[in-house]
Amino acid sequence: MLCKKLVRSFKEYSWLILYCGFPLCCLPQTQTPSAPYDVRQARLLLQTSALYIFAANQGTIDMDSAVIFAAKLEHVSDALAYNSDYYFGGSLPGADLIGKCDIEAAVKLVQKLSGRDRVLVQLQLGSWYLHRTGTRQEDLKNAFGWLQKARLESQKIKDFRLFAVAGNMLGDWFAQAGEEKESSTYFLKTADTCQRIGDNEMLANTLNHEAATLRNDDSLKIPLFERSLALYAQLKEPERQIEVVEKLSVVYFSRGQMKQFRDIELRTIAMEKAIGFRHLHYAYIALTYVDIINGQLADAVREADTGVGIMEATGDSLASTYCYMQQAQAYSNIGNVEETLAIFDKVLRQYKGGPVIWYNLFIMTAETLLGVGRNKEALNMIQTITSRYPPPSIVAKLKVVQLTVMSLQRLGDIKEASKHCTELINIAAGIDQPAMDKDLADAYIVLSGFYIQTGQNDLAGYYLGKARKIVPGKLTYNGKENLPFTEYKIDSAKKKYLSALRDYQRYSALHDSAFGPSKFREYNTLMLQMERERKEKDIQLLNSQSKIQALRLARANSLRNITFISIAVLIAIILLIYKQYRINRLNALENAKKNHTLEHLLNEKEYLLKEVHHRVKNNLQIIISLLESQSTLQRQDPLFTLQSLRHRVYAMSLIHQKLYNFDNPHKLNILEYINDLVVYLQDSFDTSSHISFVLEMSPVELDISQAIPIGLIISEAITNSVKYAFPGERKGVISIKTELINSEHLKLKISDNGIGLPEDFGSKRSRSLGIKLITGLSADMDAKLLIESKNGTSITLDLNISEIFMGNKDFSLV
After folding, report:
1. Strands 701-703 and 667-669
2. Which residues pair with 796 in a beta bridge?
């Protein structure tokens, strides 16, 4: 069943395994939030994560790549790993541009800045080029140029701290370029400057930088780290102390000094707890690893459980696969197969790892099955997985062949096991990396055990000798235990019984230290304690789940109520908005209507004002024409002349008076107008005793352009009748009649029953102003004029009232 799960999971992630260039150890299930940390602790988390990635990938990626990947997971800038000497929080000039890799803009910024800010940007540019992934000569050249500029600029402004920072970075540059002597010179000069000015912090930084550039087997590496550690302790900088301690642990581990490595990890945990650093699982899992090697199996289980618990509590999935693997290894070593397989199953279900860790998971599963005697199942798993997914690294290939030999040997297939032994020997011959010594030692011990079983004691002794050459501190726990047991078998085969007895005693001591009665009691106590803790956690989990369920139910009810209230409020708001919209719309329409009316009234008033001016001009023009016409005729009685002129002016002014009182300023009721005009003339001539007026009129409205000339014609006709038709106060009648022929034609007739026109009327006509005025005004209106003298005098006008003259025509008497 487990084999099927492994195969299914490998299918899902086969692209990771087949892609040999994959540079990172794992992909995150969730991303670790580093926001609650300040800059120093965020930097510590970044460095810790990067160290894990670098170590877990077993040298397949460089440290700078590990830093970049860790920075993305922790949501921080990768520059934090390199600017610890000059950045402690706040803003940093140019950091945003360099963080976005906008180097061109950063270079332009350098040209604009001066003083300390300029040096800071130069340092960041130098660091960016120095720590870019990969190895490019152009990058090294650019890094050196910017760091030199920063050093000269800081010396110019007498900022000795930045001068020392530039010196340390140049020391790093020369170390990366392979010029160790020049690198050491820069560090010595910088340290001398720091001591001279009494800057212990920069001195500690310089020692830390120099130690980091040395090889792990360099004798000066540990003393330099310890000296910087002491200075950081004096300065009370715990984050920098932890940084140095973590680097020391790597050195001790690489040298196989597991006791010092364990002590350092315990020290790291204590220091991280003191500053409230929560990501302690890296140190606990490292302790688990070393305790497994040292055979401290109970401690390994306890520390693995603690590390996994912290990892799950922090949500840091970066190391989740590795943490679970170490936990499974710890349980496997104490023989708890079911717990081991349960952990493996959990890892497979949530696995997000890369090819190296994936294969380690598979290899560890096979080792566990072999450890409990399930040899056939282990062999089937190995053959199934490797046939579909070849090992991604030389170490994985070594382990797979080694486990195949062990499976076949235990199943009794010696011939097939022998073939794989030859393959194992060839693979081991191609490995020369010190980091793989422990894996080589295990392979040599397996070869030696196989050759002992097949009676090839010389070959067994040869490979056992190769295993003995491995530093004891680098051996795995199985290697440490199997080495004296294999020696015991060889010495027994060679009949060296005394040596065989000593070998067996050493094996028994190691075995009993892990599996003796006291250890079993310790394991049983540990298992009981863990089982009790697990049950308590289950109870707490059930209680928590009940509380969570109740909270969720209450939250759902609250959410439902809030939703209903929100919907009601939303509907009310929508209705209010719609109502306001309607009101605004109606107001807008009303305002538009009012504006249109006002605009119309304004235009009308402007037109009326122009009309008034034009009418005044026309009226004045008529008066002037009358005066001019009167002056050209023979002299008459001046009083009568003025009286006639007054009548004519009154006829015009009466029109304006009527228009002023009438609603329509363009139209005039002719009935009222003629009636008032006749009354006025009758009173003016004082003829009521012998002349009567008869009016037969239709109620017609005329345009002002027609009303004025009609009024003047009526005035002239009545004046002539009063003056000439009834001599000697003869009684008579003057009749004025209007007849509306149709909607377009009006007939006006003014007549009297007087003596009529004189016989010579035609010859004198041109000399009569009144007749001339009547004729001219009729012509202006395009009216048909008829003057007759039958039983008195009658003047008839037939005019078209649809032809409206809008005031833009000047009247003429000519």
Report:
1. antiparallel
2. 749, 786
Extract the tokens encoding 8: 């299914």
Residue of 654, 645, 642, 656 whose CA lies nearest to 622: 645
Q: Which two tokens stand for residue 126?
A: 């130098």
For residues 494 and 457, give the distance between their C-alpha atoms in angstroms, rounded to a whole number. Answer: 8
Please give the single-letter amino acid code of residue 368.
Answer: T
Alpha helices in 633-728 (DSSP H): 638-661, 670-685, 704-720
* Four-point Cα dihedral 132, 138, 143, 148, nearest 10: 170
Strand partners, 793: 752
How do beta strands 732-740 and 784-788 pair?
unpaired
Instruction: Return contacts of 165-171, CB within 8 angstroms, 24+ apart.
Output: 165/85, 165/86, 165/123, 165/202, 165/205, 166/119, 166/123, 166/126, 167/193, 167/206, 168/85, 168/205, 168/206, 168/209, 169/123, 169/126, 169/127, 169/130, 170/144, 171/206, 171/209, 171/210, 171/213
Residues 635 and 424: their CA atoms lie apart, in Å, by: 155
Q: How many angstroms separate the CA atoms of 551 and 547, rounded?
A: 6
What share of residues in the chain are helix, strand, coil (percent, to 5)? 75, 5, 20
| Nearest 10 degrees: Cα torsion 409, 396, 348, 17 | -130
Strand ranges, E, within 34-136: none
Burial 2-18 (b: 16+ CB within 10 A, else e): bbeebeebbeebeebbe
Among 281, 274, 350, smallest CA distance to 314 is for 281
Say whether 696 sits in a helix, a strand or coil.
Answer: strand
The one-letter code for the residue type at 212 is A
Please give the structure tokens belonging to residue 407: 């499976």
Confidence (pLDDT) at 681: 79
pLDDT of residue 538: 61
Element (H, E) at 245: helix 238-254
* 731 band by pLDDT with thresholds 50, 70 and 90: confident
CA distances from 51 to 48, 61, 290 (A): 5, 11, 17
Residue 750 pairs with which residues in a beta bridge? 736, 795
For 42, what's the count of Cα atoms within 13 Å in the CB-facing half-sphere? 23
CA-based torsion, 95, 97, 99, 103: positive or negative: negative
Under the phi-then-psi rule, with left for phi > 0, alpha for psi from -120 to 50, and beta for the rest, what region is 727? beta
- Return the SS3 of 799: strand
Checking DSSP bridges between strand 667-669 and strand 691-696, what pairing results, if any? unpaired
Q: Rounded to whole angstroms, what are the CA distances from 405 to 2, 379, 448, 553? A: 21, 9, 12, 58
Give tens-digit pLDDT for 130-184: 888 766 788 889 989 999 999 999 999 999 889 999 999 999 899 888 898 898 9
Distances (CA, A) of 254 to 215, 229, 471, 540: 10, 20, 11, 42
- Smallest CA-to-CA distance from 708 within 616, 784, 637, 633 is with 616
Contact residues for 170 (Cβ-Cβ < 8 A; gap 6+): 144, 147, 148, 151, 186
Length of the chain, please?
Answer: 814
Q: What percent of the chain has pLDDT over 70?
A: 75
Q: CA 44, CA 244: separation in Å to the nearest integer?
A: 11
Nearest 10 degrees: CA dihedral of 514, 519, 523, 528? 180
